[in-house]
Structure to design on (71 residues):
């Protein structure tokens, strides 16, 4: 919690896409009034939002390169 009452929040999700394990991390500053039911907040209500995407698998490791149109 920042001195002005705003919250620094971070969420992470892991999923498999195209035989590749991907991790999406979202971080930003939110106002407490923007929090919804279930302690959720829409991503368009975050200030200074950072999105990080990491992947591990055949695409990320370049073991078996996908067809040129998929790159």
């Amino acid at each position: 919690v920042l001195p002005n009452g705003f919250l620094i929040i971070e969420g992470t999700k892991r999923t498999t896409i195209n035989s590749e394990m991907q991790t999406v991390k979202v971080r930003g500053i939110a106002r407490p009034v923007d929090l919804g039911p279930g302690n959720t907040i829409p991503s368009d209500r975050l200030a200074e939002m950072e999105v990080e995407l990491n992947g591990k698998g055949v695409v990320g490791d370049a073991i078996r390169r996908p067809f040129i149109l998929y790159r």
In short: The CA atoms of residues 59 and 69 lie 13 Å apart. The mean pLDDT is 82. The two ends are 41 Å apart (CA to CA). The first helix runs from residue 58 to 61.
